[in-house]
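Hi F.,

I've been meaning to write this up properly since the lab meeting, where we talked about keeping a consistent format for the predictions we share between groups. The idea is simple: the sequence comes first, exactly as it goes in, then the structure tokens exactly as they come out, then a line or two of notes. No screenshots and no reformatting. I'm using this chain as the first example so we have something concrete to point to.
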Amino acid sequence: MLRLITVQGKQIEPYLDALGALRITVFRDYPYLYDGSLDYERDYLKVYLEAERSLAVLAIHGDAVVGATTCMPMADEGPEFQEAFVKAGHDISRICYLGESILLPQYRGRGLGRQFFKHRENHARSLSLGLTTFCAVDRPQDHPLRPQDYRPLDDFWISQGYQKQPGMQATFHWKEVHEAAESAKTLTFWTKELK
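Output, unedited:
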């Protein structure tokens, strides 16, 4: 049976490797094409353990973590996440950053994506954070590794009340599956004012 559990801060620790392995699996596919390692993931995800106000929602089937989503106050994130908002004159202290929302392919189409947004937005409200945001990698339409049947998630995000902010971007570095070394990628932010 599929169930959702929520954990915060240090409670995430027992699930850290499962979350890292899931990120590696899901983000290996287009559009991220991420060639990750568990060591890198442990280091990357450490910020969620250290932030008391972070949240992870895990979709568990049997004993396996098959989906997950995370969020935390933007004030607890690194400067590379904050920079676009600081430049645009936003108050960082009222923003909740929505991290990954990932599901193994066989669990998609069951409404879990909507539930993930609901959990994260409710968490933001509980912390009195009025703006939620996430970022998504930018890829050209004619990217050589784009699958024929690829469907961008833009329509889904719009249906959840998010608006793309073309002028607000961040740059991150990771190694793609066909790269010898890390390279820079731009990601564009999407935002929503919570009611």
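Notes:
The chain has a mean pLDDT of 96.
The chain has one domain: 2-193.

If this format works for you, I'll send the rest the same way.

G.
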